[in-house]
Protein: Extracellular small neutral protease
Amino acid sequence: MTSLRTSAGQKNSRRLAALALGLGLAAAALGTAAPAGAQPQGADRAPARSVAGYVGSAENTDNKAFFDAVLKSVAQRQAAQPSLKTVTVYYNASQAPSFRSQIASAASIWNSSVSNVKLQATSGNADFAYYEGNDPSGSYASTNGHGSGYIFLDYAQNQQYDSIRVTAHETGHVLGLPDHYSGPCSELMSGGGPGPSCTNRYPNATEKSRVNQLWANGLAKALAEAGVRR
Structure:
């Protein structure tokens, strides 16, 4: 949960073990099964990825790469279908069956909290995916910055902390929000900072406003670059 990793090599080996639990983790494309022992694309290239965890560690970095990767994927879909009125981010939860209820609740929380973007489950290719397993660093959101993003939900951490809060927090990274561990329990993105007793599962007004702003302005910029008018 807090940083128990002493080197990039140890971190990668632990993550490999955590993700090789026979869950059929994705290969290059999200939502596509891979042989046991495979990692989500980019997981073996730590220097090139952004990682945002539920409990802070010195190795966590800014979450902008994750948001940019998801935004790019969504913008490409919007460009192909410019008549779409609602910006939808698709997720695949098939590789996290133990957390199906929590993931659905987290999506519902965000969908009821913001208006400029919606989360939608899919069983096929998605903008990001959820995975489950054991990792001493806990739950985290990760991307290699090139279009492959995923959320990893750690078993032990989700028993110690409110599981829906953990899932909603990590999903907040997909929508563009960074960690703010020093914040109060009323801040969803304070994550594990307030301690296990914090069970707030909802973003506060500032977090809601920020997501709406990011998806209104960010998507407009991405579509403009793709030459699409709305």
Remarks:
- The radius of gyration is 16 Å.
